[in-house]
Design a protein that fits this description.
By secondary structure, this protein is mainly α. The chain contains 13 helices and no strands.
Length: about 290
């Protein structure tokens, strides 16, 4: 979210501020007021417009930063926006929309914080729930194929773990990475089995499970960059999590297509293909949310 804007974005931003000021003079209403008085847009579109307005506003910069970090408080943010933009006389419908839109933004912030907490939970071989999920992953990915050697086994390599004990591979993504691999396997078994079948070719092999763990890290980074906000507004927590896992699955499938199309010769071809695929995913979601 932070950092200096490219020069062309700065030019567009200056033009936008000029037009906003001009429209304010003509209508007698601020951009925020115009957004919340619109009746024909839905909650998601209204929230998107408000978020972009706040993000680009110098006067509302502190309010916006409070909404996307720390401990966002919907009521406090709404009251500050009303005070700064002199909206004390706004209609009841407009006030309700403002509260709803601000609430959507703050709720996504809290969802991101929930994901960060889950991601920070390390995988533990001493936790029966973690171990049960790991066994479920094996069964889903292999159609319950018997695993020689028990829990500590070189057989884990069949689904792309690097050593005999998968626990060590989850250090970068925690339980969240395991949960997302499980979601992918349980909701798209055909795609998973096709990927693992493709990777049976020595030239096309890469560590499938470890790739999934890395994708979790990239998707979580994009979530923190607020690239998925528009897909999460107005949803309950369970549905937000499901949508995030769907995005993860889409990125995983897209990477596999890119990998096969690259016609790899060895696993040494993996890093540049993976990097390019993740950059493409980042651009795709950024373009879908960018105001300019």
């Amino acid at each position: 979210m932070g950092g200096r804007r490219p020069w062309w974005e700065q030019v567009v931003l200056i033009a936008w501020r000029f037009m906003k000021h001009f429209t304010h003079i003509i209508t007698g209403k601020s951009e925020v007021e115009r957004i919340v008085l619109l009746e024909h847009v839905g909650s998601v579109e209204g929230t998107r417009r408000l978020r972009h307005s706040l993000e680009r506003s110098e006067k509302l910069d502190a309010v916006f930063k409070m909404m996307i970090a720390g401990n966002p408080q919907t009521f406090t943010a709404v009251e500050e926006i009303k005070r700064i933009k002199a909206l004390s006389q706004i209609s009841e419908e407009g006030a309700q929309r403002l509260s709803s839109y601000v609430g959507n933004i703050c709720d996504v912030t809290r969802f991101i914080q929930d994901i960060e907490r889950i991601q920070s939970e390390p995988y533990s071989s001493e936790n029966p729930a973690h171990e049960a999920k790991l066994e479920e992953l094996w069964n889903l990915a292999t159609d319950s194929r018997p695993r020689e050697g028990g829990r500590i086994s070189p057989e884990w390599n069949r689904i792309g773990f690097q050593g005999k004990n998968p626990a060590s591979d989850f250090r970068g993504g925690g339980v969240h990475a395991l949960n997302q691999l499980l979601y992918f396997c349980s909701t798209r078994p055909g795609a998973v089995h096709k990927q693992l079948e493709d990777l049976g070719n020595a030239e096309k092999w890469h560590p499938w499970a470890c790739t999934g763990i890395n994708i979790t890290s990239y998707v979580t980074s994009m979530l923190k960059d607020r690239l998925f906000d528009i897909q999460l507004y107005g949803l309950d927590r369970e549905t937000q999590l499901q949508r995030l896992n769907e995005i993860y699955s889409e990125v995983f499938e897209s990477f596999h297509v890119d990998w096969i199309k690259s016609n790899p010769k060895t696993v040494m071809d993996f890093p540049p293909v993976f990097k390019k695929s993740m950059e493409q995913a980042h651009r795709q979601y950024k373009e879908s949310t960018s105001p300019i």
